[in-house]
Amino acid sequence: MTERLETVMLEVEMASILAYAELTDDFNPIHVDPEFAAATPMGGVIAHGTMSLCLLWAAIFRSFPASALRAPELDVRFVKPVRVGDMLRAGGEIDAEDPALYKVWVRADDGSDRIVGTLRLAAAVAQEEAP
Predict the structure, then answer these.
(1) Disulfide: which of 26, 92, 96, 115 matches 106 by Cβ 3.0-4.6 Å?
(2) Domains in the chain: how many in total?
(3) 40 domain-assigned
(4) Residue 64, domain member (yes or no)
(5) Is pLDDT at 103 greater than 80 in this prediction?
(6) Residue 114 CA: distances (Å) to CA of 7, 27, 46
(7) DSSP letter at 4?
(8) Which residues on adjacent β-strands are paired with residue 9?
(9) Cα(25)–Cα(48) distance, rounded to whole angstroms?
(10) Distance (Å, rounded) from C-alpha 43 to C-alpha 109?
(11) Is residue 20 part of a domain?
(12) At a CB cut-off of 8 Å and minimum separation 6, what does 84 contact?
């Protein structure tokens, strides 16, 4: 049984945010225009929330065989913005009381959570080993 998700790391760079904007066709100025973003309550550019969420999915896909991911239920909350220069780590661990439930997160190096949530796998396949 996989008790901990494989940790996946990413240093957030402006070039990555711009590439993600191009990929998703999401050019909201809070993500791509430093001058505009500086004048907002955010005080600067923030990464797309889904960009950080992709990091969590990478940790999930690296941690379980495809058969365990037939119908995953991922429930997350975005708790703090991700900024240029943040070093992120995505991971998770099994819930001691429910072997089909994992507590998952994306955290910055300062220990602050950026995304928190749960991943539920089908109970029968949650017991399978990672590839």
Answers:
(1) 115
(2) 1
(3) no
(4) yes
(5) yes
(6) 15, 21, 12
(7) B
(8) 89
(9) 11
(10) 20
(11) no
(12) 12, 13, 14, 17, 44, 45, 47
| pLDDT of res. 104 | 98
- Determine the average pLDDT of the residues in 51-75: 93
As to burial, measured by CB atoms within 10 angstroms (0-12 exposed, 13-18 middle, 19+ buried), residue 27 is exposed
123: pLDDT confidence band, cut at 50, 70 and 90?
low
Report pLDDT for 1.
Answer: 64
Q: What pLDDT is stored for residue 69 in this prediction? A: 87
Domain that residue 117 falls in: 49-126
Q: DSSP letters along 43-87, please?
A: -S-B--HHHHHHHHHHHHHHHS-GGGGSS-EEEEEE-S--BTT-E
Structure tokens given for 98: 């429910």
**CATH number of residue 103's parent domain:** 3.10.129.10
